């Protein structure tokens, strides 16, 4: 069979598709990845075949100069509009690929809408990979609004629904809207960073990994040098080693970092988190699930969109603590990390969520589900 995978040009959206696409390929099926031009180099590094879906502006450029949203919900709709603009930009390219490459199934990450539209127009089966805990219906509202205004963008039927939705979150953390989702075991693809020697050697003191993911360090406040000052100055109160997982160019911009920071740069979290005791993260889908799968407790500092509910679900499971920016006065982060290190209940809850993740159906089952569509 031929399976076309589509994604917007964001690592956090694209990475979860990679192990699934590789599974389909190793089962002997033809796979093609369609992403915007400027993201092709990232996609090619996965070793999968990649085609361009068109020249689409970057998410960060589409956000530039915008006033902050009036509310959390407005922010979600605005991001949906951005994804609608991206879909409009890749619609012609994806339509051409669907017409000429003739996939049997199109699999899209949840914020990529050109693939589902092009597939529906030709009666091709559609599957969605749902990253993140919440339903994010506001994305569809915003995207539909933009696509309806595009000539040839959206017919009266509106945005098509997928035939199948994959969900890698452990069932005990999922929300009600996910009742019909097909569970799939989380397998991390973390990009092309190398595993450092210290991650496969015994550690001498507790190690805390700090990350803001791939997008936040390119946006607003979090992009500036000093973005980690609050976190790092608090961690000085603890006898811990700190490693910072961030793109190498951002790490260079954030220098100098305190001596306590043993490493700053792109780190493969799936291999690095088992060598850490606590993660301080932003609640991004891949980061959060990778820490849960490693059985590591986490302090979550979410900023927007799914990060907030992802963090909430982890806190509710007992595997972590969620703090909003206004709650992180001096000493609060150190106190939270101290609790995560010292109170075995956090680690115990993280271990039981890890066991639940490990018991989810393997990717090979998900590939069979795709082939059965
Ligand atoms: P995610 O956690 O969903 O967050 P965001 O979309 O905000 O970036 O995705 C980030 C992915 O990148 C996740 O798979 C973890 C990976 N990553 C690393 O493995 N190491 C790193 O140093 C960074 C910055 C990211």
Low-pLDDT windows of residues: none
**Principal-axis shape:** globular
Straight-line N-to-C gap: 11 Å
Give the neighbour order of strands across the main sheet.
Answer: 3-2-1-4-5-6-7
* Tally of helical segments: 15
The H-and-E topology, N to C, reads as EHHEHEHHEHEHEEEHEHEHEHEHEHHH
- Overall mean confidence score, pLDDT: 96
Bound molecules: thymidine-5'-diphosphate
- Work out the helicity level: 25-40%
Structural class: alpha/beta
What are the main properties of this structure?
373 residues, alpha/beta, seven-stranded parallel β-sheet, binds thymidine-5'-diphosphate
Describe, in plain words, how this protein is organized in 3D.
The chain is an alpha/beta fold. The protein contains 15 helices and 13 strands. The chain has helices at residues 11-14, 17-26, 40-44, 59-63, 72-101, 114-121, 137-148, 229-235, 248-253, 269-272, 285-293, 306-317, 332-342, 344-358, 363-371; strands spanning 2-6, 30-35, 50-52, 105-109, 125-130, 164-167, 182-183, 207-211, 241-245, 261-265, 278-281, 298-300, 320-322. The chain has a 7-stranded parallel sheet, with helices on both faces. Helix 6 links the parallel strand 4 and strand 5 (125-130). Helix 5 packs across helix 6 and helix 13 crosses helix 14 (344-358). The radius of gyration is 20 Å and the shape is globular. The relative contact order is 0.13. The model has no long low-confidence stretch (mean pLDDT 96). The structure holds thymidine-5'-diphosphate. Thymidine-5'-diphosphate (TYD) binds next to helix 1 and helix 11.
Summarize the topology.
Layout: E1 2-6, H1 11-14, H2 17-26, E2 30-35, H3 40-44, E3 50-52, H4 59-63, H5 72-101, E4 105-109, H6 114-121, E5 125-130, H7 137-148, E6 164-167, E7 182-183, E8 207-211, H8 229-235, E9 241-245, H9 248-253, E10 261-265, H10 269-272, E11 278-281, H11 285-293, E12 298-300, H12 306-317, E13 320-322, H13 332-342, H14 344-358, H15 363-371
Helix pairs in contact: 2-15, 5-6, 5-7, 8-13, 13-14
The structure holds thymidine-5'-diphosphate.
The site of thymidine-5'-diphosphate (TYD) has 24 residues, from α1 and α11.
């Amino acid at each position: 069979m031929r399976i076309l995978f589509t994604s917007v040009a964001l690592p956090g959206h694209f990475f979860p598709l990679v192990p699934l696409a590789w599974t389909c390929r190793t089962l002997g099926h033809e796979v093609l990845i369609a992403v915007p031009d400027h993201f092709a180099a990232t996609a090619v590094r996965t070793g999968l075949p990649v085609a361009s879906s068109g020249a689409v502006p970057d998410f960060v450029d589409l956000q530039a100069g915008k006033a902050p949203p009036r509310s959390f919900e407005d922010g979600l709709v605005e991001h949906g509009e951005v994804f609608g603009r991206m879909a409009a930009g890749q619609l012609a390219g994806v339509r051409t690929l669907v017409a000429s490459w003739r996939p049997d199934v199109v699999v899209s990450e949840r914020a990529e809408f050109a693939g589902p539209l092009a597939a529906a127009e030709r009666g091709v089966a559609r599957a969605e990979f749902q990253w993140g805990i919440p339903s994010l219906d506001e994305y569809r509202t915003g995207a539909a609004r933009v696509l309806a205004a595009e000539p040839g963008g959206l017919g009266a039927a509106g945005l098509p629904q997928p035939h199948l939705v994959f969900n890698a979150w452990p069932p005990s953390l999922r929300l009600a809207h996910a009742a019909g989702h097909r569970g799939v075991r989380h397998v991390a693809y973390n990009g092309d960073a190398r595993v450092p020697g210290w991650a496969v050697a015994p550690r001498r003191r507790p190690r805390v990994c700090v990350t803001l993911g791939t997008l936040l360090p390119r946006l607003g406040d979090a992009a500036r040098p000093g973005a980690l000052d609050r976190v790092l100055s608090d961690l000085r109160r603890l006898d811990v080693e700190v490693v910072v997982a961030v793109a190498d160019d951002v790490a260079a911009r954030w220098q100098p970092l305190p001596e306590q920071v043993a490493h700053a740069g792109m780190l493969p979290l799936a291999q690095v988190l088992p060598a850490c005791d606590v993660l301080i993260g932003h609640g991004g889908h891949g980061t959060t699930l990778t820490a849960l799968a490693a059985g590591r407790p986490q302090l979550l500092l979410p900023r927007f969109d799914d990060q907030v509910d992802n963090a909430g679900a982890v806190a509710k499971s007992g595997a972590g603590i969620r703090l909003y920016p206004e709650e992180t006065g001096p000493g609060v982060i150190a106190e939270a990390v101290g609790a995560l290190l010292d109170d075995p209940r956090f680690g115990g809850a993280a271990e039981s969520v890890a066991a639940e993740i490990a018991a989810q159906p393997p990717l090979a089952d998900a590939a069979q589900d795709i082939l059965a569509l």
